């Protein structure tokens, strides 16, 4: 499990771009409390 608080959306985009080749499948659960 990965948990983080990010101040800018561009940081999340950079992280996802960096790990997209490492993962075959991924799921994001979005709610009022954040992305899990």
TrEMBL record:
Pfam families: PCNA_N. One of its GO terms (molecular function) is DNA binding. Coiled coil: none annotated. SUPFAM superfamilies: DNA clamp. This is PCNA. It comes from Drosophila virilis (Fruit fly). It comes from the Eukaryota. One of its GO terms (biological process) is regulation of DNA replication. Residues 1-36 form the Proliferating cell nuclear antigen PCNA N-terminal domain. InterPro entries: DNA_clamp_sf, Pr_cel_nuc_antig_N.
């Amino acid at each position: 499990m990965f948990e983080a608080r990010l101040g800018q959306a561009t940081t999340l985009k950079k992280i996802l771009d960096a790990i997209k080749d490492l993962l075959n499948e991924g799921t994001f659960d979005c709610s009022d409390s954040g992305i899990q």
